[in-house]
Amino acid sequence: MASRWGSARWGTTFLWGDETGTPNGGIDPASIITPTVRPYQPRWDLYVRDGDTRRRVAQIDEWSRCEFVTRHNQIGAWELTLPGDHPAAPYLLRPRAGLIIERDGQIVMSGPRGTRTRSRKAGADTDVTVGGFSDEVWLNRRVTLDPADGDADPRTGVASTLILAYINNHAGPLAREDRRVPGLTIGTDPTIGGSLVRAGRRRVLHDLCVEVARAAEVPVGFRVRQAGTDLVAEVFAPADRRSSVLFSIGSGTLAEWEYGDETPEANWLWLGGEATGSTRVFATVSSSASIVEHGRIEQWADHTDIDNVPDLRSAGRADLIEKAAQTRIEATPISSDALRWQRDWNVGDFVSVVVDGTKVVEQVREVAVDLAPSGVEKVTVRVGADGVRLARQELALMRRAARVERRVRALETV
User: Fold this and answer.
1) What are phi and psi of 400, to 5 degrees?
2) CB 355 within 8 A of CB 58
3) From CA 36, how far away is CA 375, in angstroms rounded?
4) Which pLDDT tens digit goes with each residue over 337-370?
5) Cα separation of 263 and 273, whole Å?
6) Beta-carbon neighbour count of residue 84 at 10 Å?
7) Angle at alpha carbon of residue 51, lines to 46 and 57, rounded to 5°
């Protein structure tokens, strides 16, 4: 059923062209051509973050490679290569150190270091390569443990309230002292997402937050960002900017694009809930529209923390969203005075992209940045595809590449 968010709650809206080649919705390519678009070059600043105080202890003014990606409702990543003798290198190599990346004075990425590598090639100086994650990773480092009394931490409330409550109780100020993420505070609850019931037993905290956000009645976003020397867990309503943000080659706001789609992982789920003695709760959920288009694709999903059919089906519907068919657009926008990242659009927003004369309305899932040593940016926007599946595929590729690299190194030492 159509809604103000698209053809489905998280779906894509296509406005196909008519027989004359003019797209519906009044978009004539000739009418959106802007003869002159003034390019915009932002200012970038990189800082090393102390692992204990989260204060800025050194500025990085020289690097050979800097790449990062920020994701909607998922964990972002960053990687930086700088000279081994750079004054900031010792600070960045310390345990629990992190990175802060600012664009025009606004933080676009912050988070702890995860990897560090020193290397030297023939005829070159020593380099230091450091990789890390966005601050959402702290939610991936906590689990929703059973309290001592065996309670499964069941909660009822709107989606935003549930997300903030689980973060607060398992990583924030209300968590047991030894489980609190240092400096993590809880933002104001916007009370959005519709009423839900959840049990938090034995779950990775980040996974639980993603599940609640997917099950919400309207789009819901969450993030952990640095504010001063604190970390703030926030829930927000993604903005619908389809009418004000239009990326197209004809308008001078888009340099290039790539479009693709992917069949679903599953469209019929058998669900297993909590087992009590010799009995267990079971249910099924399915997507009739997907089955008609792609055929029936079955999978099994365990939710052993849920003891009733309505909640089990609600969790199953969230699973279906993750496993649904994917539409993916990778686009390279042109930053100009007319349309700027952060000012006019951001990760999580719903925007419009013109692909071969067709207007596509979708959600910005990722923003990837390749920052040249000169400070010139290349920004790639990924819209449509769900971040969980993309992150899972990327992780598999990274692990495969690491295995190959280890084998090559082993051969080189023989």
Assistant:
1) -65, -45
2) no
3) 24
4) 888 999 999 999 999 999 888 898 889 999 999 9
5) 27
6) 16
7) 45
Token couple for 272: 């297993």
Q: Are 369 and 69 in contact (CB under 8 A)?
A: yes
- Res 20: pLDDT: 31
At 358, give phi and psi (nearest 5°): -110, 130
Work out the pLDDT band at 226, boundaries 50, 70, 90.
very high
Please check the confidence at residue 390 and state whether its pLDDT lies above 50. Answer: no
Q: What is the per-residue pLDDT across 261-316, written as a single tens digit (0 to 9) for each?
A: 889 999 999 999 888 877 899 999 999 999 999 999 999 999 887 888 888 888 88
Residue given tokens 């065996």 in the structure block: 150
3-state secondary structure of 277: coil
DSSP 161-189: HHHHHHHHHHTSTTS-GGGPPTTEEE---
- 356: burial class by Cβ within 10 Å (0-12, 13-18, 19+)? exposed
**At residue 81, what is the residue type?**
T
Label residue 399 exposed, middle or buried (CB < 10 Å: 0-12, 13-18, 19+). exposed
pTM: 0.77
Distances (CA, A) of 167 to 10, 148, 268: 24, 18, 31
Report which of 183, 236, 184 is spatially closest to residue 205, judged by C-alpha positions: 184
Task: Round to whole Å and give the CA distance between 389 and 72.
Answer: 13
CA distance 70 to 305: 31
Which two structure tokens, joined as six digits, stand for 21?
Answer: 């080649």
End-to-end CA distance of the chain: 63
Instruction: Give CA–CA dist 93/58, Å, rounded.
Output: 12
Please give the C-alpha separations between residue 116 and each of 48, 78, 161, 392, 401, in angstroms, as whole numbers.
14, 12, 37, 22, 17
Going by C-alpha positions, the residue among 64, 319, 336, 348 that lies closest to residue 219 is 348
How do 350-355 and 358-371 pair as beta strands? antiparallel
* CA atoms lying within 13 Å on the CB side of residue 208: 32
> How far apart (Å, rounded) are the C-alpha atoms in residues 199 and 211?
11
